[in-house]
Amino acid sequence: MAGGNHNTAREEKATSRGQSEANRRLKYISLAVLVVQNASLILSIRYVRTLPGDRFFTTSAVVMAEVLKVLTCLLIILLQRRFNVKDTVYFLVDSIMFQYKDTLKLAVPSLIYTLQNNLQYVAISNLPAATFQVTYQLKILTTALFSVLMLRKSLSRVQWVSLLLLFAGVAIVQVQQEGNKEASVSGGSNQNYTVGLVAVVISCLSSGFAGVYFEKILKGSSASVWVRNVQLGIFGTALGMLGLWWNDGAAIARRGFLFGYTDMVWAVIFNQAFGGLLVAVVVKYADNILKGFATSFSIVVSTVMSVYLFGFHVDLLFTAGAGLVIGAVYMYSLPKATASSSSSSSSSSSAAAPRTDGPELEAFLPKYKQKGS
After folding, report:
1. Are 142 and 326 contacting, i.e. CB atoms less than 8 angstroms apart?
2. From CA 201, how far away is CA 207, in angstroms rounded?
3. What pLDDT is stored for residue 78 in this prediction?
4. According to the model, what pLDDT value does residue 236 have?
5. Which of 184, 190, 282, 298 could form an S-S bond across to 38 if both were Cys, CB 3.0 to 4.6 Å?
6. CB 241 within 8 A of CB 67
7. Gyration radius from the chain CA atoms
8. d(CA 258, CA 286)
């Protein structure tokens, strides 16, 4: 009897050790995915926007990414309902059309996200990738402030200090760039540092507001995140088409919607469309500290790659500013005693996917239920 209990205890211990090892591997995989997605999107956009030759229309890329996101979310919903097409159609019609008041609530964040996606192209086209990556962390500050104002969340003293350090680090980087514009913008006559800086600041403000607004909507609704993304994508596609017609309508009518699209441009679009959804899947395996570390490490990766790909010059002032930002991002992600602000940290530390990150995320497992059950 004693031998049997000993064997059972040993098996349980081995099982527990195996689960712990699996969780550790999932965390490392999550870290790698977050770092690669954060850094690769910015570097690839910068690369395709600085190549010589015909340039694609960024407005068409934004629309294409929205269409791909909608199709992907529809496929996920179909999977969750065990590929029952009829039931999926009824479900979507009920969720989107019959509950139109609920759908209309997504018009505001969708407009802001569409604006933000277009501004990111403008910013990265005019700023070095490393400078954009550092400056874009201001979205943590804007998200935190909007969370305090709109959701009445509280921040710890460490988080407030980290926000001050974040602002100081970004300011130092901007001083460095102002004093060395020739190095920060590689002599291109069509690149404007001021335009890029204004674009990234507005993008950070819009990201903070839209992320908190979307979180507020999610908390007041039982709809799945995938349905919400379909609703956002419908508005985003329509608004993106409107922006495309307004800004590039005549040129696209003359040259075509896919003008300038290369394999690299398609890679950027797929990264933008699926990267956020991929992060949404793995982010549940990563705690706030890991996400903060991933964001910090992606800044280092972007800076190092910018040196090799774009000849970016790293001096002492940039290193000091970027170091403050990296430290601030990590400090902000540290856990606090009260759990009330944990969602604020998670919503602000993911650079890629404000629309899909959050505790309401559903797994890719079928969750179909018969009607009336």
Report:
1. no
2. 10
3. 95
4. 93
5. 298
6. no
7. 22
8. 37
| Alpha carbon distance 203, 126 (integer Å) | 14
Phi first, then psi: what are they for 356, rounded to 5°?
A: -125, -10
Nearest-angstrom CA–CA distance, 271 and 42: 10
CA dist., res. 348 & res. 291, Å (int): 10
Token pair, residue 268, equals 């950027």
Q: For Cα atoms 244, 302, 30, give the angle at the middle one, nearest 5 degrees.
A: 90
Whose tokens are 């349980």? That residue is 12
Q: Quick one: which of 332, 350, 341, 94 has its CA closest to 208?
A: 350
Q: Which two tokens stand for residue 82?
A: 């065990």
**Which residue positions in the chain have pLDDT lower than 50?**
182-188, 338-354, 356-373
Q: What is the pLDDT of residue 278?
A: 74
SS3 225: helix
pTM above 0.90, yes or no: no
- Which residues neighbour 310 within 8 Å (Cβ) at sequence distance 6 or greater? 46, 50, 128, 129, 186
Dist. CA 212–CA 354, nearest whole Å? 9
Three-state secondary structure of 267-314: HHHHHHHHHHHHHHHHHHHCCHHHHHHHHHHHHHHHHHHHHHHHCCCC
Burial tier of 152 (Cβ tally within 10 Å: 0-12, 13-18, 19+): exposed
Inter-residue contact 62 to 240 (CB < 8 Å): yes
Sign of CA dihedral 272, 278, 284, 287: negative
Task: Report d(CA 267, CA 250) in Å as an integer.
Answer: 26
Q: Given this model, what pLDDT does residue 346 score? A: 43
**Is 188 buried (19+), middle (13-18) or exposed (0-12) by CB count in 10 A?**
exposed
Structure tokens at 169: 């680090």
Name the amino acid, one letter, at 116. Answer: Q
3-state helix, strand, coil in the chain (%, to 5): 75, 0, 25
List of residues 6+ apart from 30 with CB closer than 8 A: 282, 283, 285, 286, 290, 294
d(CA 148, CA 369): 38
* 173 and 325 Cβ atoms separated by less than 8 Å: yes
- Please state the length of the chain: 373
